[in-house]
Specification:
The chain has two helices and 28 strands. The relative contact order is 0.14. The longest helix has 8 residues. The protein has one domain: Neuraminidase. It starts with 6 loop residues before the first helix and ends with a strand. The structure holds 2-acetamido-2-deoxy-beta-D-glucopyranose (2 copies). One 2-acetamido-2-deoxy-beta-D-glucopyranose (NAG) binds next to loops. It comes from Lasiosphaeria ovina.
């Protein structure tokens, strides 16, 4: 039984590309070509803006992070299994630069403050590797040990604090944290998990973790500043990895694709969990969710037509809109301020495309 199909293999399978991927030449030296468009999708791009080609050759989903207005950092694993990095500084795209490494999972990146980025990934040795940008330079790769499956989730509840989560070979959640001065050991937080975890922090001393349980249900565990609570089942009939977003203290919105391929949503309003609602759609990838301001959420996922589909909440839900495709992996999205969301997609040429 393969409980944790590698995300890429999984997507390639569900998107019907199992026969053969186009064999692409190495492109270690990929440069960012601007401006360019995904011709087939530009006409359908319902968002203001357009797809621009950012190049590269990626076989894993991307991670994208912003430490402040007008700043974006994009990370992906290249064909050479190294971590590749591109960044938007407000005027220009920099990159791609290779940050080295020999990686086996998609990266998980986070920023706990301006000029600071931490990136985590599972190496080909199954242990967790960490690399940090301290404001002036990238520090070397550091092994954090552990034996983890598939992909990681990372959260930060404050300056100089990092919490890393992944599922181990025993199907429990494993946790390691940076206290500000040192790394803890690995601790098991139990569970019997069948998806990768999704972690979020709505504020100081608070972390919420979600993952699918053994019954296709959503499981929840949270750190309240004193202790770990849960696991509690939030029900559902779900597949793929869940996504969670918080637009502020005491608010959580969780999304997951159901076994019926529609998008399901459940939220915590500060006092209770409101029941599941179906947001419809016909999806074939995990969702990604972003909140750029209180009261607003944007959700993206790959549809059965291999296009990226988008739906947003701002008091009521918008209709689904296609942002175009085809893409071969789940999208990534981030916001650097109210009214601004950047979406990243990997096309059938395995290059990175950007829409905003
Ligand atoms: C990288 O690009 C430079 C300039 O175009 C070229 O001379 C070099 O051969 C390239 N390196 C690789 C590994 O493709
Ligand atoms: C989902 O589809 C059903 C049936 O078409 C419709 O009644 C419902 O309003 C839709 N829900 C949302 C949130 O769009």
């Amino acid at each position: 039984m393969v409980r944790f199909p590698h995300l890429l293999g999984h997507l390639v399978q569900v998107l019907g590309l199992a026969v053969a991927l186009p064999s692409l030449g190495r492109n270690d030296n990929a440069t960012i070509a601007l401006p360019s468009t995904i011709e087939s999708t530009n006409a359908q791009a319902a968002r203001p803006g357009r797809w621009e080609l950012l190049g590269g050759v990626f076989f894993s989903p991307l991670s994208v992070e912003s430490w402040g207005p007008n700043r974006l950092d994009v990370f992906g694993v290249g064909q050479d299994l190294a971590l590749w990095h591109a960044w938007w500084d407000g005027s220009f795209w920099g990159g791609w630069e290779s940050l080295g490494g020999v990686l086996h999972s998609m990266p998980a990146s986070i920023s706990w403050g301006p000029n600071r980025i931490d990136v985590f990934a599972i190496g080909t040795d199954s242990s967790v590797w960490h690399k940090a940008f301290d404001g002036s330079r990238w520090l070397g790769w550091q092994s954090l040990g552990g034996i983890l499956l598939d992909s990681l989730s990372v959260a930060s509840w404050g300056s100089n604090r990092l919490d890393v989560f992944g599922v181990g070979t025993d199907s429990t959640l494993w946790h390691k944290w940076w206290t500000g001065s040192r790394w803890s050991g690995w601790e098991s937080l139990g569970g019997l998990l069948t998806s990768n975890p999704a972690a979020v922090s709505w504020g100081l001393n608070r972390i919420d973790i979600f993952a699918l349980g053994s019954d296709h249900d959503l499981m929840h565990r949270w750190w309240d500043g004193t202790r770990w609570n849960g696991w509690v089942s939030l029900g559902g009939e779900l597949q793929y990895d869940p996504a969670v977003v918080s637009w502020g203290p005491n608010r959580l919105d969780v999304f997951a694709v159901g076994t019926d391929h529609s998008l399901w949503h459940r939220y915590y309003d500060g006092t209770r969990w409101v029941g599941w609602e179906s947001l419809n759609g016909t999806l074939e990838s995990l969702p990604v969710a972003v909140s750029d301001q209180r009261g607003r959420i944007d959700v993206y996922a790959v549809g059965v037509d291999s296009a990226i589909w988008h739906r947003s909440y701002s008091g009521t839900w918008s209709n689904w809109e296609s942002l175009g495709g085809p893409v071969v992996l789940p999208p990534a999205a981030a916001s650097w301020g109210p009214g601004r969301i950047d979406v990243f997609a990997i096309g059938t040429d395995h290059s990175l495309y950007h829409n905003w």
